[in-house]
What does this fold into?
Amino acid sequence: MKKMLYLVSLLALLLVGCQNGSDTSKDGVLRVGMECGYAPFNWTDPNKNEDNVKIDAGLINAGYCDGYDVTMAKAIAEDLNLELKIKKIGWEGLITALQENQIDAIIAGMSPTEERMQQISFSNNYYSSEQVVIVRKNSEFATKTKLSDFSGATLVSQLGTLQDRLIKEAKDLGIIHGTAYDSYPEAITALINDTKIDGVVAEYPVALSATASNQSLTIVRFEVGEGFHVDDEEVLVSIGVRKNDTDLLNKINAALDKISLETREEWMLQAINRQP
It folds into this structure.
């Protein structure tokens, strides 16, 4: 009887351990998921340098990941005294990968929207951005300063993002919601090559990255109160963790508290300057 009670107690402890999520300190590794295709937040490099981190893909050589998110992930892993491993995961699969314990955290330019907060927990924000539109320099929309000036324009963005939703919500202004793309590079390429697309809605750092790489493009920034209507939490960028990983969340927040706003802005500027 005592042996049976012991086994039951042991099983209960094991179940509690499983419910607390993966213990990143157990193997000394922090596994972070990101697209490695959302410059300047993250992108893929073919060769190693002092800034990037090798993509963890087993025996497959998937290259290296660099960007603002990588710099942030390196700083947090160092503060937590953990080895950093980066998993390259498509945007639509990031939350699922986190929930299935494939990764410990999402550091991928993700905003803590109400819908996402129902699935995972988020840290304090590590960046805040504005929503802009990338257009061709020779476009009739290049000099516009109000979202209402885009009536009749076809705008696109990346599938499953805040920006794609904002385009849908702007239909009352006569804005046409174009088919969303799987990634921002694909959307930018479409803007350059397809005159039926008038603009790509993006965060300002992403727009800076795109226009730095493509001289035929420019950025439309809106007058105060004349752009997209977004809630504060939707323009913030935070780190996602599993809801039951409260200890990891607290440690990440403590690490973020040590990184000043000036340092964060400098890291973003550096990422924009070195992005491909």
